[in-house]
Design goal:
4-stranded antiparallel beta sheet, RNA-binding, Rossmann fold
Length: 841
RNA sequence: GCCGAAGUGGCGGAAUUGGCAGACGCGCUAGGUUCAGGACCUAGUGGCCUUCGGGCCUUGCGGGUUCAAGUCCCGCCUUCGGCACCA
């Protein structure tokens, strides 16, 4: 008899043994086929792991452990994405240097990760803030610069006052910062940009070959936003001309006015004196409005006539030129031809300002809407009349090109990637500015450009990084000629370090390259990448871009970094608010009576909604408490048992009992507890029903493992354990296979029982069991007998019985006979192994 | 507004190509066991009806195809996610 199952004791012991034996180390010299299983590495925040991490990393851990047991040489590394805003914000809030805060938080994270029993190869741990690491981030930047993909420009940027920095388009959501939700305004500033647009087509096309969730690919496609159309040049008298971009060149005959963005450079020059004051006022008003305000009233159309007229190149018509803020300077050419008959926005504008409307595509019979944006035959369009839209487009583009007033063109929603930040905690640029205003990239041997210590690392708010105040760091010389120069004081954004970290894991200590050709070829691409959907258009797009650049430079051998991507669902949890003022309540301060939540202190009802866990909603569950109470194995198992990996999951701790009981049951069966002897085992071969149960389980669990259907895999292990519990003596073979299959999910329990039953080595590294096809069959089969679609009886018959025998027994069943009595049998068939179909009239 | 995903017992969720809806677990009910238990064991558990043989209903709603529909087709509703004046 053994003692009770005490998870904490067992788990820490096995964690130490795995570590001492370096059980999960990925060996470069191992000749077996490789499997690279990667997590999106975390920002080590001060709060430690949350349940989202636990879910993410448990899924990948099971993938990695299963792959090991299937004989793969597995690379499953972990590291820290520690530069950037979250780390810096935390440091400012807690009055510590970011470096110290990162070191401390990394310690917390790592201890928690090890406590979960995740099988990382810690010998490859990396940290993006380590100079040995960011040296190579800077080096890759130099490569981008050499290729002409990094450049400086005065551009309207997203300036966030509260964060004291500019942000990338991807970091701005609804006019607010992705982090913190602070207001963001447009403001022109001189900034570094990366030409991701040059890769737009490849980023789009290569999505097809990736094994990613389709909705995620769709998000990237939409973000890139490729649209095909044409540029059309309009002239204004003899002096000016401007170009518009349109996806509907076929509707050019219906262009009854043009609209320029208020920021369009031509606006000032073409405005007539009579319209001057109105135009100036509108332009000023627009520039004061934030992006957010501009988006807030999409419904109402505003605009001002410039007094100028443009010549429609297709028919010479003089059409008025307006300015309006629904035309964006940052997209296309910042100018449009307005076709109210074929575009609802233009229709609304035309109605508001009483401008003419001409239909150029015949709407379908009975159409009583406004603009018709669909297919149809061209009308009122001269040489296009009668053509369907696609043909009309082609014909118009040919005409425009022939006349030299337009051409086919593709535009993208994707903009170049704004790559500089006015913050302290990021990679410095390997760039110096010379006195003559030019700048120079530093040579590779000058790297790393270390981040200096500063007195204050808080944002200055002036648009300059805190680094600008570090005189002796800023003042330097251009190594090319020794002339005085100033260092670039912007830093790289958070995403820089994570753009290539997956490559560094393959070769973490290389001092002469970011990753050697050999290691790249050995380990890349990542076979399974597990992480949240929140990175769909940020990290995942940026990393693909860098990877393609590295590919073009011949530095990596694959076009894409992440072959298969798995998105875990979100963990949702009820949050509680007072009904009075909506302030959030901690879960401990709420009690549930008859399914209704009440505020404990006041006894008044509380308002509850289910949403994503977040600190501000006070609905965060701390994994440490669950581990303390039930152990890591139970938490791992429960996380997976709640539902499929990609589904959102409602956190409800009442279900934990189920998986905890399952582990206890396994424990008692194999080693017993303080009251019960373990179940006797036998080395005799498994036979009969037990054999069938065993092989069905192996077959089913294996299938589920391949499909990442871990919730059903666990349920099949439960079925197997229940079957073992029904036996007086358990065949050793069953215990063996059970433990091997338990190992990826509850590795500590598996190890403990593995060693308690005198098995050699680690269960975590034991081969995956195989099943015998013949054992999946049973001697008898059960058939449901349907009469006119309803089950009227069941019969058990020897397997492989001929159809005739089955049908004969089926019609002989008492209840079946009753239902067919006095009627004509019009159809009878047997669905092998399942049912008998009888149709009567 | 546009695009995408999803709606199955009291709850989380299962269901190859259309083939016995509700696996597994939680919860609940009854019994056993225990000094005790938020422990363990056994049995039951979608709803309604029942002469205890069985019958009828049931996968968001309404139609349809089929011997047979959670699964396929048509039309709606709801929820979640993404995009949001992108020309």
């Amino acid at each position: 008899m053994a003692g009770a199952y005490i998870p904490n004791e067992i788990e820490t012991r096995w964690q130490q043994r795995w570590e001492a034996a370096e059980a999960f180390r990925a060996d470069d010299a191992d000749p077996r086929p490789k499997k690279y299983v990667l997590d999106m590495f975390p920002y080590p925040s001060g709060d430690g792991l949350h349940l989202g991490h636990v879910e993410n990393y448990t899924i990948s851990d099971v993938v990695a452990r299963y792959a090991r047991q299937r004989g793969f040489n597995v690379l499953h590394p972990m590291g820290w994405d520690a530069f950037g805003l979250p780390a810096e914000q935390y440091a400012i809030e807690n009055q510590v240097h970011p470096r110290d805060a990162v070191a401390r938080n990394v310690g917390i994270f790592k201890a928690q990760m090890q406590r979960m029993g995740w099988s990382y190869d810690w010998s490859r741990e990396i940290n993006t803030t380590d100079p040995d690491y960011y040296k190579w981030t800077q080096w890759i930047f130099l490569k981008l610069h050499e290729k002409g993909l990094a450049f400086m420009a005065e551009v309207p940027v997203n300036w966030c006052e509260a964060l004291g920095t500019v942000l990338a388009n991807e970091e701005v959501i609804d006019g607010k910062s992705e982090r913190g939700g602070h207001p963001v305004v447009r403001k022109p500033m001189r900034q570094w940009l990366l030409k991701i647009t040059e890769y737009a087509d490849r980023l789009l096309e290569d999505l097809d070959g990736l094994d990613w969730p389709s909705h995620l690919k769709q998000m990237q496609r939409e973000w890139i936003g490729r649209s095909e159309g044409a540029d059309v040049t309009f002239t204004i008298g003899d002096e000016h001309e401007f170009t518009v971009f349109t996806t509907r060149p076929d509707t050019l005959f219906g262009a009854t006015f043009c609209v320029l963005a208020p920021e369009h450079p031509l606006v000032d020059g073409i405005t007539t004196d009579a319209q001057r004051s109105g135009v100036d006022e509108y332009v000023a008003k627009t520039s004061r409005r934030s992006e957010r305000d501009r988006m807030a009233d999409v419904k109402t159309k505003s605009g001002v006539f410039t007094g100028a007229f443009a010549t429609n190149p297709v028919n010479g018509a003089q059409i008025p030129i307006w300015i309006a803020d629904y035309v964006l300077m940052g997209y296309g050419t910042g100018a449009i031809m307005a076709v109210p008959g074929g575009d609802q926005r233009d229709w609304e504008f035309a109605e508001t300002f009483d401008l003419p409307i001409i239909r150029t595509v015949a709407p379908p019979e009975g159409f009583d809407g406004q603009a018709w944006e669909g297919e149809g035959a061209a009308i009122n369009s001269g040489f296009l009349d009668g053509m369907q839209v696609p043909e009309a487009k082609r014909t118009m583009i040919e005409w425009l090109e022939e006349k030299g007033v337009g051409s086919a063109r593709v535009t993208y929603r994707l903009r170049d990637w704004l790559f500089s930040r006015q913050r302290y905690w990021g990679e410095p640029f390997p760039i110096v500015h010379r006195e003559d205003g030019s700048y120079a990239a530093l040579p590779a041997d000058a790297l790393p450009i270390r981040l200096p210590d500063v007195a204050s690392y808080k944002p200055t708010g002036t648009g300059e990084s805190p680094l600008a105040a570090v005189e002796d760091w800023v003042r330097t010389t251009d190594p090319a000629d020794g002339a005085p120069a100033l260092r670039e004081t912007n830093t790289m954004p958070q995403w820089a370090g994570s753009c290539w970290y997956y490559l560094r894991f393959a070769d973490p200590f290389n001092t002469s390259a970011f990753c050697s050709k050999e290691r790249d070829e050995q380990w890349l691409p990542v076979d399974v990448y597990v992480g949240g959907v929140e990175h769909a258009v940020l990290h995942l797009l940026y990393a693909r871009f860098w990877h393609k650049v590295l590919f073009d430079l011949g530095l990596v051998h694959t076009q894409e970094p992440f072959q298969r991507l798995v998105n875990q669902g979100m963990i949702l949890c009820p949050s509680y608010q007072t009904e009075e003022n909506g302030s959030y309540l901690r879960i401990e301060d709420v009690e549930i009576r008859d399914g209704t939540p009440y505020v404990k202190a006041t006894g008044r009802p509380a308002y509850s909604i289910v949403q994503k866990m977040s600190k501000s909603k006070k609905n965060v569950i701390n994994p440490d408490e669950i581990i303390r109470e039930f152990g890591a194995d139970t938490l791992r198992l429960y996380m997976l048992f709640m539902g499929p990996p990609d589904a959102d999951k409602l956190w409800d701790r009442s279900g934990i009992q189920g998986v905890y009981r399952f582990l206890n049951k396994a424990w008692r069966l194999v080693v017993g507890d303080d009251r019960r002897e373990p179940r006797p085992r036998t080395s005799d071969a498994t036979s009969g029903a037990a054999r069938h149960a065993l092989h069905t389980a192996i077959h089913g669990v294996t299938q589920d493992m391949e499909a990442l259907a871990y919730n059903t895999a666990i349920s099949k292990l439960m079925v197997l354990l229940n079957a073992m519990g029904d036996l007086d003596t358990i065949p050793e073979e069953m215990v063996d296979a059970f433990l091997r299959m338990l190992a990826p999910f509850a590795p500590h329990m598996a190890e403990e029982l593995w060693s308690a039953t005198d098995r050699e080595g680690f269960a975590s590294l034991a081969d995956w069991p195989t099943y015998d096809e013949s054992a999946l069959k049973t001697d008898t089969e059960e058939y449901a007998v349907q009469v006119n679609g309803k089950v009227r009886g069941k019969l058990v018959i020897a397997a492989e019985s001929p159809d005739e025998a089955i049908l004969a027994e089926a019609v002989a069943l008492a209840n079946v006979a009753e239902h067919i009595a006095g009627k004509t049998l019009v159809k009878q068939m047997v669905v092998r192994g399942r049912l008998v179909v009888l149709v009567v009239k």
